[in-house]
Structure formats: structure tokens, C-alpha cells
Write a structure and sequence with these properties.
48% of the residues lie in helices and 20% in strands. It is built from 10 helices and 11 strands. The strands form 3 sheets. A 5-stranded mixed beta sheet has the order 6-7-5-10-11, sandwiched between helices. α1 runs antiparallel to α5. The longest helix is centred in the middle third of the chain and has 29 residues. The N and C termini lie far apart (55 Å).
Amino acid sequence: MNNLIVSGIKKFLEANCFNDDIYDYLDFYAKLRELKEVKFIYDELQKWLENTFNIKSLKIMIYSLNDNEKEIVFQNADDEVYQNEAMLKKYKVQMNANLMINFSLVCEDDNHFKQITSKDEILNAFFYMVSPFISSVSYQELVQKLTFRDPLTNVYNRKFLVEHLNKLLPLSKRENKNISFLMVGIDHFKAVIDEFDYDIGDKVLISLSEILQENIRESDIVVRLEADEFLVALVGITSPNDAKLVAQKLIDVFAKNEVKVSPVGYTLKKTICVGITHYDNQTNSVDYILRNADISLYEARNLGRSKIKEFFPDEVECVDLF
């Protein structure tokens, strides 16, 4: 990847159409190199094209040549905008034998098209220079996603939770923000495996993960901890009572959900229990939070199906875990 970047820089510097603006281009390239998320790279690239060349619409596509597949990774205008081929400038960068990145720029009119065409050499060189960097950051994001995501449900995993809370808890303490944690468990989940099989069990888990994500805010997070247990972190919640309202909503929605268990249309309905614990600004241990959440879920399950139990520290001595 570094060889491609070096080649891109060489090609950029060897272009015979440069003037003093070359320093502006190199400064912008240096700015892109500081960005660690590919979506920010795309956004900054589009802004730069608009400010420098009056290009308001940009589409970036990645082609897998061997698989004959393509993916739009960035597009800031409706599909119709890119359908006028006469006003479309395309710049293709061949990354390797299989991968190609295509940059499509929409011009305003014939004069604008001619102006951009006169800059073909510099734009080709610049896209050739930034493409390896885009590919590298995208790959790093993919690796991180695979590291921090549960492979079955695609929600976050325990490793992400630990790293995230180690940063979030001190910040919430300084800003005096409330955080509530919902430990969610499927009632009698083992019976699903015994009665059907692991594939049906996976369908139930995926269904629950989707319901959890669809019924919380974007600022909240869902984590699969183990087997049938998920943790929902409600960040910046107004009051502890709001956590109970969210928990009840999740219970109600999941109870109505149907999972298909046979080709002829038979469905399965399950229920969940929810244990609730709250961050009290004195807790600095992720393990302590998980322990309290576990206790509250255990107590909720002891009450029956579709139950909620809130954790209170002074009740810990009364809890019989075994």
C-alpha cells in the first residue's frame, strides 16, 4: 500500500501542468492523511472539489473486477444527477488486478466540463495519490469492525464494551451525565435449542438484536455479551425511571415478534426479562457494572417471564445466586 502512495505522489509531482497551487494540493493531501475514518475523508474530498473546482456532486464507487461487483461508497446527490453522461467526468484508479476505484464528478454546463477537462492531468494524479490512502483506511475500519462486532448479530461485543466504557465513564462523571444499563435475556432460551435447533436459536437472537437497535436512540449502544444476553447502555438518560420505560417497551415489542421456524409458515414467539442498573458516578469498574446488571437480570427471571428488576446496592446481600 505504501508503494502505491509513493507512486501516486511521484505521479502528482511529475505532472507538467502545475503552478504555485501545488502547495495547496499537498496541504490538502496532508489534511486527509490525518483523518482516521473513511467517511470523513469522503466528506472533506467533496468539500475540496467544490471549493477548488466548483464540483458540487461526487460519487465514489469501488469495483471488484474478479467478482464483477461494485459498491457505491459515497454519493452526495440523487441518482438522477449522475445520469447525464455528457456532464460526467470519470477518473479511474486501478489499485491492483482486482480492485478499482472510480470517481465521478458532475459538471454544471459545457464550459464547466471544458474547464474540468483541462485539469484532467492534475485530477488524475491527485486521485491516484489519495486512492491508496482511502483503501488503507477502509481496510483498517473493516478489521476494527470485525474485532468489535458480534459475528452473528452484528451488534457490538464485550471487547468493544470494555474499551468504550473505560472512556465513557470518566467523561460522564465529569459532565454529570446519567447512564442506565439494561441487561436483556431471553426467557427459557435453551428450550428453543432443545425443541428446534441452533439455526432457529440464531434467528431468535438476530431478531432480538434488531428490535433492540430499532427501539433505542442512536446515542445508545447494544452489546451481545454471551449466549442469549445483551446489554443496552442508555447514555445521557434523563432519569432512572426512563430506563424502566425503555425496558418495558423492549419487552412489549419483542413479545409481539414472530420468528419463522418452518417452510410452511409456523412461527415462534418468545419473551425477555430485563435487569436494570444505573451508573452512580462512583463506579469506575466495568466489571462492577456487569455484575450488578447480571444480578438484576437474575432477579427479574426469578419473578417470571417478561419481568423487570432494578438493581439496588443495599439488596445485594439478599440475592441468592446459587
